[in-house]
Amino acid sequence: MAAEALYDMYSASLYGVIVRIVIDTAVAEDVLQESFVKIWQSFSSYSAEKGRLFTWMVNIARNLSIDKIRSKDFKNQTKNQELENNVTFIDEQKNTVYKPELLGIRDLVQKLKPEQKSILDLVYFKGYTHVEAADELGVPLGTIKTRLRMAIQQLRKSFN
What we know:
mainly alpha
């Protein structure tokens, strides 16, 4: 009963985060299922003093998504797709829509500086590491970390 209620309340939001990172809808559905299993199994480690339940759940889903796209199995799977399937695969994936406005995040992120928004998008929504984001944007690693920390602090103020 409790697991069902948790799933009903949060699955759509978590799926939005996962599919933004993983891209492949079938894999995203698997990661969503893995996320809820992990959430349920480690629920005793959740502490309301450390943050909101939703934030804790999003971090679990995000981390599992990133682990998935960094796994050898996932990398090999994407490399080994047949050529004719790639066009269909890409077309299907581009129709996937992530709607952060449903979470109220879009308005908050729009208030950030452009350089903070771009780093936040790469690191949190596309699963880049800090080093990969630095390479992508041509910015020193320390600058990436500072801007990301400032963006998170700015967003955190909106939730207090």
